[in-house]
Amino acid sequence: MEINGKEIIPAATVIWLSGQVASPRIAELDVPKDDIGRVLVDRNLEVPAYPRVYALGDCAHFTDPASGRPVPRRAHIAVRQAKTVTRNILASIRGREKKPYRYRRPVDLVSLGVSQAMFRWRRFRLYGWPARLLWFASYAFLVTGAYNRVRIIIDWTSAIFFGRDTSYIKTKIGKSGQ
After folding, report:
1. Cβ neighbours of residue 10 closer than 8 Å, sequence gap 6 or more
2. What percent of the chain has pLDDT over 90?
């Protein structure tokens, strides 16, 4: 393993953890935040000092009432929070009662490279290729739009056979004909 392009450390296993902090734009807001810069929200995902202002996903600190702990910062949780926020915005416009966000412990599904994954739901566990196929299908359907979904499926499938590659496929010709 090479560190900072200088020091080489012999290692058979490398574990990498990345820190996560909220966006610098969120840090600029004058609202109560947690120790990593996420905006504290109430049960409706609203910023308490600012009615009808919502925060969700990585920039929101929502405490799970059942455990008393903040919910994990994961894409599928942000997607569910977005649905709650959308319903609450519509409820506010229509003069109806808002509904609180209800966190349910989701399935744990983790990608471990191109061909491996781990799946855990309650006491049921899968590892390796079967879990990777489940991960593949689950995340492909989280992506919006058929075009994006097909493009991602093709990219992930080709990575299995040819390795990972960063590519850009231009699909529309610009006005200048380029």
Report:
1. 1
2. 29
